[in-house]
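Sequence, please.
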């Protein structure tokens, strides 16, 4: 018989987690204003809120921490990391930052001004927040198939070239400072972007003399999907695919807390010496000196090792297989999820799960809270709350699909934990008609409200 698949690692250390009672969870979520971000970590049994900085590091990464150079300027850890970035992505200019949103802050401080437009594929929350905070506009050019959760399109993260061309023809060149391509595309379900699409986007952008920047938090997972799904890449290595991907970019932002396999850190890399010279000023102003930029030397060391490990095919196969284990179990149970399954998370289609709950009552948040109450599992809403309000009209924005995202930390949970998640969602699905109402907003911040807002059940 064929041998079954097993992870390419063994467990060396464990961390106890507390299994709470439903009565405790009912009290805790009410005290948190029905916002799972406001829960304490020890009030959560299985934490699928995010895959950002929540994974387990390897023994080699822990060893690298001990040799970190904490010099303020000219740290050897900086040069070690810079060498890895240049080798993997091909960019000569590099600035470390404390995480991905810091890279966005530095880059947009260089490139964006009020009234600009930034086309891309379903910009995620911090990206859109930084754009709109500067009184600019993010324009979504994702292909329409991304909003059809039953479609089997293999690259739902792709940019629609006609939509992008329309933006580039509608606005003057000086009003479009860059195009952002998110790989993989988080907002539509961890969906990959094909190499052909990256190539075509870059060709179109070059015709209009607009630079292309990749939001690269999950670059390796995107490369794995290219290897698995795109003709001509099945025999290329992950590192070869990554290097080719970035020939179609002028720069990149990176939250290293995802595919960097570390708990903190990020960077900004680019080809332009002019961009770099301007960015250094903002990096020093916001983050720290250019050779540490908000990161300790030990964390730069761990990140350099993480960039090696994340591009290993065996690691990626184990990672993606676990995500698909959860997604396939939910699909078998009849629970609607974004298809085909993506990379870092499983996205439950809350609108199809609870079709009788009006979108105005934040259906994905309703399902998020129900999952926590059922089993102490913390997912996150990727729906109207995350979409925020229109910065001009201040009306709620309602995305085409309301998702409950179940993001899997890397090398952290076993499949037994995921079986708990499946059982909990099956229980909720069986009693879904009993869920009558959602939430109304009690308090919200003017930008990126979903992190700190407070809600209350309608009718309470």
């Amino acid at each position: 018989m064929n041998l079954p698949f097993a992870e390419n690692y063994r467990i060396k250390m464990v961390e106890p987690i507390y299994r709470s009672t439903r009565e405790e969870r009912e009290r805790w979520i009410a005290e948190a204003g029905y916002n799972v971000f406001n829960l304490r970590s020890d009030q959560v049994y299985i934490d699928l809120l995010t895959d950002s900085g929540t994974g387990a590091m390897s023994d080699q990464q822990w060893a690298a921490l001990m040799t970190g150079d904490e010099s303020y300027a000219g740290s050897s850890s900086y040069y070690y990391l810079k060498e890895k970035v240049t080798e993997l992505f091909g960019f000569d200019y590099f600035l470390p930052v404390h995480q991905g949103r810091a890279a966005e802050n530095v880059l947009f401080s260089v490139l964006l001004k009020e009234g600009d437009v930034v086309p891309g594929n379903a910009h995620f929350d911090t990206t859109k927040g930084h754009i709109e905070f500067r009184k600019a506009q993010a324009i979504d050019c994702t292909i329409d198939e991304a909003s059809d959760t039953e479609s089997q399109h293999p690259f739902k993260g792709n940019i629609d070239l006609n939509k992008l061309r329309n933006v580039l023809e509608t606005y003057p060149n000086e009003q479009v400072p860059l195009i952002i391509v998110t790989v993989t595309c988080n907002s539509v379900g961890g969906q990959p972007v094909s190499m052909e699409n990256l190539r075509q986007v870059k060709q179109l952008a070059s015709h209009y003399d607009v630079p292309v920047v990749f939001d690269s938090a999950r670059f390796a997972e995107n490369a794995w999907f290219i290897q698995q799904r795109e003709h001509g890449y099945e025999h290329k290595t992950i590192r070869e695919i990554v290097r080719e991907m970035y020939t179609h970019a002028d720069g990149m932002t990176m939250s290293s807390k995802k595919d960097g396999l570390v708990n903190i850190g990020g960077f900004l890399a680019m080809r332009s010496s002019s961009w770099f010279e301007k960015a250094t000023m903002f990096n020093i102003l916001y983050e720290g000196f250019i050779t540490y930029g908000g990161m300790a030397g030990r964390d730069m060391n761990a990140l350099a090792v993480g960039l090696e490990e994340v591009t290993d095919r065996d690691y990626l196969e184990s990672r993606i297989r676990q995500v698909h284990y959860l997604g396939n179990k939910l699909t078998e149970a009849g629970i609607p999820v974004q298809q085909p399954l993506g990379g870092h998370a499983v996205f439950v289609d809350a609108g199809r799960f609870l079709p009788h709950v009006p979108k105005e009552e934040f259906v994905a948040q309703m399902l998020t809270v129900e999952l926590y109450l059922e089993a102490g599992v913390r997912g996150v809403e990727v729906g109207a709350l995350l979409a925020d309000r229109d910065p001009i009209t201040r009306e709620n924005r309602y995305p085409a699909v309301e998702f409950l995202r179940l993001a899997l930390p890397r090398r952290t949970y076993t499949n037994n934990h995921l079986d708990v998640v499946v059982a909990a969602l099956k229980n909720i699905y069986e009693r879904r008609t009993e869920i009558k109402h959602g939430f109304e907003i009690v308090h919200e911040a003017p930008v990126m409200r979903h992190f700190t807002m407070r809600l209350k059940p309608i009718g309470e």
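The two ends are 58 Å apart (CA to CA).
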